[in-house]
Write a structure and sequence with these properties.
Blueprint (H helix, E strand, L loop, with lengths): L2 H9 L3 H23 L2 H18 L9 H19 L10 H4 L2 H7 L9 H14 L4 H12 L4 H8 L3 H26 L1
Helix pairs in contact: 1-2, 2-3, 2-4, 3-4, 4-9, 7-10, 8-10, 9-10
């Protein structure tokens, strides 16, 4: 079923359309929520909130962006709201792309925590703390770019901003994380 037909059926309240929507976008929404929240149960709760919001708001969807963009925008907003609500500000999903630690990437992507010594666990916590220094908009842009693999034009559409602004946000996030991680590494030597 095409996107236009799906939207029309959703607006008519067709149950099968809701099922199709969840089949098409559910896994990606859940993964996106998890990468922001770093907690399976929280991600599942927000995932449900996202689709409840989609179901409630589908009649206000104007079609100015793709349906998937609109859904992921809701997922990101709900995830950030959850972070703020629980005072877990400025978390992000992964360090792997910055510090080239495949185990960290696997763990934060939903894999099991690697069996590691206490010192390695402390380093992971310190690196996660470095990520907590990012402002929300930089964290969102960085996560969508470096973790989710979106292009800058796609991120601009999701964040409702310009491509230049996205490039700037990602650049500033990488620079801030580099500086933070350099300090952490220096302190661990």
């Amino acid at each position: 079923m095409g996107e236009t037909e799906l939207i029309q059926q959703l607006k008519l309240g067709e149950t099968s359309a809701y099922n199709d929507l969840i089949l098409q976008h559910g896994d990606r929404v859940l993964t996106t929520c998890y990468k922001f929240l770093l907690n399976k149960e929280d991600a599942e709760d927000v995932y449900q909130e996202v689709f409840i919001e989609v179901f409630k708001s589908i009649n206000s969807f104007k079609g100015e962006a793709k349906l998937s963009t609109w859904i992921y925008r809701i997922a990101i907003t709900k995830s950030l709201d959850e972070i703020k609500k629980r005072n877990r500000k400025k978390r992000i999903s992964s360090l792997g792309k910055i510090v080239h630690i495949d185990e960290v990437m696997h763990w934060l992507g939903g894999g099991r925590m690697p069996d590691a010594s206490l010192k390695e666990k402390e380093k992971l916590q310190e690196m996660n703390n470095a990520l907590n220094t990012l402002p929300d908009n930089q964290r969102v842009a960085f996560t969508l770019s470096k973790i989710e693999g979106y292009t800058n034009p796609e991120i601009a559409e999701i964040m409702n901003t310009s491509v230049d602004a996205v490039e700037s946000l990602v650049y500033r996030a990488k620079k801030k994380l580099y500086d933070e991680l350099k300090t952490i590494l220096k302190n661990n030597d």
